[in-house]
Design brief:
The complex is a heterodimer of chains A (290) and B (324). Helices cover 73% and strands 0% of the residues of chain A. With 290 residues, chain A is mainly α. Chain A folds into two domains: 12-67, no CATH class; 68-289, MetI-like fold (Orthogonal Bundle), CATH 1.10.3720. In chain A, helix 4 (76-107) crosses helix 12. The radius of gyration of chain A is 24 Å and the shape is globular. Chain A starts with 11 loop residues before the first helix and ends with a helix. Chain B has helices spanning 2-14, 23-63, 79-85, 88-119, 126-134, 141-151, 158-165, 182-207, 211-219, 224-253, 256-261, 273-282, 292-323, and strands spanning 66-68, 73-75. Chain B is mostly helical and 324 residues long. Chain B has a two-stranded antiparallel ribbon. Chain B contains 13 helices and two strands, in the order H-H-E-E-H-H-H-H-H-H-H-H-H-H-H. In chain B, strand 1 and strand 2 form a beta hairpin. Classes of the chains: A mainly alpha (290), B mainly alpha (324). At the A-B interface, helix 1, helix 2, helix 4, helix 5 and helix 6 of A face helix 2, helix 4, helix 5, helix 6 and helix 7 of B.
């Protein structure tokens, strides 16, 4: 194989050009990573050092007290728990709802299918912004579930489902129908065919949906902010950290905010580093094909 | 469920006991039971669609003629409409949105395209670079906004300190509070947070361009610029069109990061329309009075503006298609 692929031989001038290119890319990478590195490293600085500023991004003295303070005094333990509940909840719901709907959309013909599909697509493009959170909030209050995490989980999953359904339908379309028919002849019901035969074949798209919806839940900000306006105990990390910033004593709590921002970043970065191909694959599959 | 069971009993009655069922009947029965199952499987997503998308949309229309503060709704007739047309703050926020979207797009698209072209050169470590450029897009916008608040801070912010350390700047700039720099700060943040997305679309689009085309252009002696403008760009046109539309609609909808970074300030310098509407509907820390009816009307107006921009873009893109 290696021989088939013609080895390109570069002249010295081309080599120099490619080296310069490489340096340019490296410089861009440093610029892009810099803000994140600055916050993560800064979370190990003392508040005094942070407030003095300076051009050094490495801590003069590494301390972990910020994390202890954030965890114990600033209720980041609760924020982290809420963020986890929110993102796992959105992920599980999205997986269930979108695979079932995607399968039905792919395999069934029924009255009004095109209309429903059109409505799904239309609402991906109609954007009225934050105003839609108002009726949803009033609905949650009316149903007496606004003192739990449920409304945010449900409405977040409901708001993001269209992309995942399209992803799923596209993938099921590529699974041969003969498989369904064979399963039917063997006595599987419609649901059993989905559950036993098709679902196991959807693993790649399941992974993509799982990761994208986990990130969606983890990064959700405006909706939980609105829903937890008066309820500090339900705030996820994104809201909790930003509330510190608005709390007025801003400068005094820089170290805690740095630690909090780092706690909010690290899990999603780890997920990204481990599963980057699903992040990137899902993005292009959802947008260009869907 | 009921129809299935009655169908079953019918079958039992019609069918002679010791003969296998006729295939036609069996197929029919399977199809029927499948419909019920399919309906149940589709139900959760339909309920979500109704509750999370359709219901809020209808709700908006219910309140556009009201003065609604979250507790009492008072009908005001067409007063919200007349107010909208004379609301200077709103139309300024629309202009701000256009300004923001213009600068964001004019920087982010060429940058993403450039990086995609560079990464397409089969350079050592290109997948690492790609991952690094994409990394900001996985971080919550609200957290990115907060990180940049630290970076842009006046006295102890790292950006001012770095610029001063290398001698590019004499006195510190008050990035977030200065009329001349707040918009730049917001745009820097949005470019940082978003360009990896578009870069990835372009990279994916470029992988579908055949290597042979580049090969033959090299043999014909095309230089880098010629290769880009004569081959890469035309062959990327379909992808570019979709990406541009996503980028345009995306830029008009941005407000989360701006809310965290400047909250629309200083004054209304970075107050984009969706941020202005958010403040009307949920109140601000200084003004808790909510004007939900009026906000609902402005939301519709904003949706119409974004829709109009999308349609105009599509018309222009089609026209360009005919020319090229």
């Amino acid at each position: 194989m290696a021989k088939n692929r013609a080895q390109i031989v570069y002249s010295p001038r081309q080599k120099a050009y490619r080296f310069l290119l490489w340096l340019l890319l490296l410089f861009s990478t440093v610029v892009v990573i810099f803000p994140v590195a600055y916050v993560i490293l800064g979370s190990f600085k003392g508040n005094q050092e942070l407030l003095l500023g300076g051009a050094n991004i490495f801590p003069a003295q590494w301390i972990t007290q910020n994390y202890v303070d954030a965890w114990e005094q600033a209720s980041f333990a609760a924020y982290t728990r809420n963020s986890l509940i929110l993102s796992v909840g959105v992920m599980v719901l999205s997986l269930f709802v979108s695979t079932m709907a995607g399968y039905v959309f792919s395999r069934k013909t029924f009255w009004g299918k095109e209309i429903i599909y059109g409505v799904f697509t239309a609402f991906m493009f109609i954007n009225v912004g934050s105003v839609s959170l108002r009726p949803l909030y009033e609905l949650a209050v009316g149903m007496q579930i606004h003192t739990s995490m449920w409304p945010v989980i449900l409405f977040s999953a409901g708001g993001g489902q269209a992309t995942y359904i399209f992803l799923c339908r596209g993938y099921v379309n590529s699974v041969p129908r003969e498989l369904d028919e064979a399963a039917r002849i063997d006595g599987c019901s419609f649901f059993q065919t989905y559950y036993r035969i098709i679902l196991p074949m959807l693993k790649p798209v399941l992974a993509t949906i799982a990761i994208l919806s986990f990130r969606q839940g983890w990064n959700e900000y405006i909706m939980p902010r609105v829903f937890t306006m008066t309820n500090d105990a339900l705030r996820p990390l994104t809201v909790g950290v930003n509330m510190l910033k608005n709390a007025g004593d801003g400068a005094a709590a820089w170290n805690i905010m740095f630690a909090g921002a780092t706690i909010a970043i690290i899990p999603i970065l780890i997920v990204f580093i481990c599963f980057s191909r699903y992040f990137m694959g899902g993005l292009t599959a959802g947008a260009v094909k869907g | 469920m009921l129809s299935v069971s009655t169908l079953d009993s019918e079958h039992l009655q019609l069918r002679p006991t010791n003969r296998p069922p006729r295939p036609v009947n069996k197929k029919m029965r399977l199809k029927e039971s499948g419909s019920v199952a399919a309906g149940l499987m589709l139900a959760p997503s339909l309920i979500f669609l109704c509750v999370c998308s359709i219901y809020p949309f209808i709700w908006i229309f219910r309140y556009i003629g009201y003065d609604y503060n979250g507790f009492v709704a008072r009908p005001v007739g067409f007063r919200n409409f007349t107010r909208m047309f004379s609301d200077v703050t709103f139309w300024n926020s629309v202009l701000t949105t256009f300004e923001y979207a213009f600068w964001k797009l004019i920087i982010i698209i060429p940058l993403a395209l450039l990086m995609a072209v560079l990464l397409n050169q089969k350079i050592r470590g290109s997948s690492f670079f790609r991952g690094a450029f994409f990394m900001p897009t996985v971080i919550a916008t609200s957290i990115s906004g907060m990180i940049f608040t630290f970076i842009f801070a006046t006295q102890n912010g790292i950006l001012n300190n770095l610029l001063q350390a290398v001698g590019l700047m004499g006195s510190p700039i008050n990035w977030l509070m200065d009329q001349n720099f707040a918009m730049e700060a917001v745009i820097i943040l949005s470019v940082w947070a978003g360009f990896g997305n578009y870069m990835l679309y372009f990279v994916t689009g470029m992988t579908s361009i055949s290597e042979d085309v580049y090969e033959s252009s090299r043999i014909d002696g095309a230089n880098a610029a010629q290769t880009f403008f004569r081959i890469t760009l035309p062959m990327l046109a379909p992808v570019l069109k979709v990406v541009l539309m996503l980028a345009i609609t995306g830029a008009f909808k941005d407000y989360e990061a701006i809310m965290v970074l400047t909250d629309g300030g200083p004054g209304s310098r970075t107050n984009v329309m969706f941020l202005y509407i958010f403040k009307l509907i949920f109140g601000t820390s200084t003004n808790a009075r909510m004007q939900i009816g009026y906000g609902a009307l402005l939301s519709l107006m904003a949706a119409v503006i974004v829709g109009a921009v999308t349609i105009i873009y599509n018309l222009v893109a089609r026209r360009l298609d005919d020319v090229v």
